[in-house]
Design a protein that fits this description.
Largest sheet: none
Keywords: Cell membrane, Membrane, Transmembrane, Transmembrane helix
InterPro entries: Poly_Biosynth_Transport (IPR050833), Polysacc_synth (IPR002797)
Transmembrane segments: 12-34, 54-71, 83-101, 121-144, 151-173, 179-201, 213-234, 254-275, 295-314, 334-358, 365-383, 389-409, 421-443, 449-472
Number of strands: 0
Oligomer: single chain
Protein name: Membrane protein involved in the export of O-antigen and teichoic acid
Distance between the termini: 15 Å
Strand content: under 5%
Membrane topology: Multi-pass membrane protein
Order of helices and strands: HHHHHHHHHHHHHHHHHHHHH
Number of helices: 21
Structural class: mainly alpha
Radius of gyration: 22 Å
Number of domains: 2
Helix content: over 70%
C-alpha cells in the first residue's frame, strides 16, 4: 500500500504545481478586476460564468468522465486515440450549436441575464466561443494527464490561464472595456492555446473511429449529466438567486466570497485530477478498499483543517485585497469557509462512492444529486429573503452532506469500504460547531482572537482521534510512508 500512497501523492503534487500557479494568478488578478470594474459589472461577470459553465456541461454531456474510464479500460493505443477523437468531436459540435443559438438570441438572453440589459448583449456569445477553446484544452490536457505527461500538462495549464488573465487585464485596465474585456482576454488566451494543442496532438487524432465509441461514451456519460447539472444548480444558480432576490451589489459580495473560497482548490483540484485515473487503475487490487477508506478519511481531515487555518487570516486578507477603496466587499470573508467546505464535501462523494463509479452505477450518484438539488433550491428560495447570503451558504453545506450520506449508503451495497463513516459524521459535526463559533466571534470583533483560534483548532484535532477517525498509530505509520 505504501507505493500506492506515494503514487497518488506524487501525481497530486505534480498537478498541484499547475493548479497553484493558476490559482495564484487568479488571486493576484482578483483585486485588479475588483478595483477596475463597477460592482454591478463584477456581479455580471459571475452571472456570465454561470451560463458558460452550464454550456460546458451540455457540450460535454459527461463524455469527459466516460473518456477517463475507457482510456484505462481499453487495451490498445489505437482505441484510446479513437475515444479521444470521438470525445473531442462530439463536445466541439455541441458547443458550436450553442454558439449559433447565442448569436440568434443574444438580445433576449442579455435582457434576462443582466440588470444592465442589452448593454452586454454580445458578452454571452464571446464567452461561449472562448468556452469552445476551453473545452478543447480540457480534453487534450486530460489525455496528457492519463499519459502521465505531467510537465506537459503543467506548462500548458499555466500557459492558458496566465495568457488569458494577462489579456483580460489589458482589455479591462488599459482599454477600459469592462465586462467585455474579461472575455476578450479569455477568447484570445484560450483560443491560442487550443490551436497549439490541436497542432501538437494532430497525429493522435483520427477521423475514423467506430460509431460504437459515441454510444459507449454517452451510455457512461449521460447518466452523469444530471449530476453535473445539479452541481451547476448548487454552485452557480445561487448567483442569480442572490442577484435577483437580494441585489446585484450583494451578488458582487457573494462573487468575491466565491473567489476567495476557490483558494481551497489548491488542495482539492490536484487531488481530483489524480484520483479518478488512480482509483480506476487499482480497482482490481485486494487492498484497494482499504486504501480508499484511508484516503476518504484523510482527505476530510486535511481539507477541513486547511479551511480552518484559512479562516484565521481571511478577514485581513479580504481587506487587503479589496483595499480601502472597496469597503463594500469586506463582509465577504464571513461566507468563505462554508463555500470552501462544500468543495471538500463534493470531492468526498467521489471517494465514498468509488464503487459506484467502478461498477458503472453512475445513475445512483445522479439520483443523489437530483434530490440534493431540490433540497438546495427549495431552501435557498425560502431562506434567501430572510437570511440573504447566509441562506445559500448554509444550504450548500446541507445539500452536500445529504449527497455523501446517500452515496455512501448506496456504495456499501455493491462495494463495501470501511470509511468509519459514523466517525466521519461525528467529526463533521464538531468541525461545523467550531467554525460557526469562529465566525461568530469574528463578526462581533472579540478581543484576542488568536486565543479562540487555538482553542477551536485544538478541539477539532482532538475530535479526529476521539471520534475514532484515526488513531495515533495510524498517523505515525502514514507519516513514515511519506518520509
Amino acid at each position: 500500500m505504501k507505493p500506492l500512497f506515494k503514487r497518488l501523492f506524487s501525481d497530486s503534487i505534480a498537478f498541484a504545481i499547475a493548479n497553484v500557479g493558476n490559482k495564484l494568478v487568479g488571486l493576484l488578478l482578483f483585486p485588479v478586476f475588483l478595483r477596475n470594474m463597477e460592482q454591478v459589472e463584477y456581479a455580471d461577470w459571475g452571472m456570465t460564468n454561470t451560463l458558460t459553465l452550464v454550456v460546458t456541461y451540455l457540450s460535454m454531456l459527461g463524455t469527459d468522465a466516460a473518456f477517463a474510464f475507457y482510456y484505462h479500460d481499453v487495451k490498445t493505443q489505437k482505441e484510446r486515440r479513437g475515444y479521444l477523437s470521438a470525445t473531442l468531436f462530439f463536445s466541439c459540435l455541441m458547443c458550436l450549436i450553442y454558439i449559433i443559438a447565442s448569436l440568434l438570441f443574444s438580445r433576449p438572453l442579455s435582457m434576462f441575464l443582466y440588470a444592465s440589459g442589452t448593454k452586454n448583449q454580445w458578452v454571452i456569445s464571446i464567452a461561449i466561443v472562448a468556452t469552445l477553446g476551453a473545452i478543447i484544452i480540457q480534453h487534450l490536457l486530460a489525455y496528457s494527464r492519463y499519459q502521465h505527461r505531467k510537465w506537459f500538462f503543467t506548462i500548458f495549464s499555466m500557459s492558458y490561464v496566465i495568457g488569458s488573465s494577462l489579456w483580460s487585464v489589458y482589455f479591462v485596465v488599459v482599454e477600459k472595456q469592462g465586462l467585455y474585456g474579461v472575455f476578450y482576454g479569455q477568447l484570445i488566451g484560450q483560443g491560442t492555446v487550443a490551436l497549439v494543442l490541436l497542432f501538437l496532438y494532430r497525429k493522435e487524432l483520427t477521423s475514423r473511429f467506430p460509431t460504437q465509441y459515441f454510444k459507449n461514451l454517452l451510455q457512461y456519460g449521460l447518466p452523469l449529466l444530471p449530476t453535473l447539472m445539479v452541481f451547476w444548480v448548487m454552485n452557480m444558480v445561487s448567483r442569480p438567486i442572490v442577484y435577483h432576490m437580494v441585489s446585484p451589489e450583494k451578488a458582487a459580495v457573494y462573487e468575491a466570497a466565491i473567489r476567495f473560497a476557490s483558494v481551497i482548490a489548491l488542495i482539492t483540484a490536484p487531488f481530483q485530477l489524480a484520483w479518478r485515473p488512480f482509483s480506476i487503475s487499482i480497482k482490481d487490487r485486494e487492498d484497494a478498499p482499504r486504501l480508499y477508506g484511508m484516503v476518504g478519511r484523510g482527505g476530510l481531515v486535511v481539507g477541513s483543517l486547511a479551511i480552518m487555518c484559512l479562516s484565521f487570516v481571511i478577514e485581513p486578507l479580504v481587506q487587503w485585497v479589496a483595499s480601502q477603496n472597496k469597503p463594500e466587499y469586506f463582509e465577504s470573508y464571513r461566507y468563505v469557509w462554508m463555500l470552501s467546505f462544500g468543495t471538500i464535501l463534493n470531492v468526498l462523494h467521489l471517494i465514498v462512492g468509488v464503487g459506484l463509479l467502478i461498477h458503472k452505477q453512475t445513475r445512483t450518484i445522479s439520483h443523489a444529486f437530483m434530490v440534493a438539488a431540490i433540497i438546495y433550491l427549495s431552501g435557498c428560495l425560502i431562506l434567501t429573503p430572510i437570511l440573504e447570503l447566509w441562506a445559500v451558504c448554509i444550504m450548500n453545506v446541507i445539500a452536500y452532506l445529504f449527497i455523501i450520506i446517500f452515496v455512501y449508503w448506496q456504495n456499501q451495497k455493491i462495494y463495501p469500504v470501511d470509511f468509519r463513516f459514523r466517525s466521519m459524521l461525528i467529526y463533521i459535526t464538531v468541525y461545523l460547531c467550531s467554525m460557526a463559533g469562529i465566525t461568530w466571534i469574528q463578526i462581533h470583533h472579540w478581543p484576542h482572537l488568536w486565543i479562540y483560534y487555538v482553542i477551536a483548532l485544538f478541539i477539532t484535532i482532538v475530535a479526529v482521534f476521539a471520534s475514532g477517525l484515526f488513531s495515533i498509530n495510524q498517523l505515525s505509520r502514514v507519516k513514515k510512508w511519506f518520509n
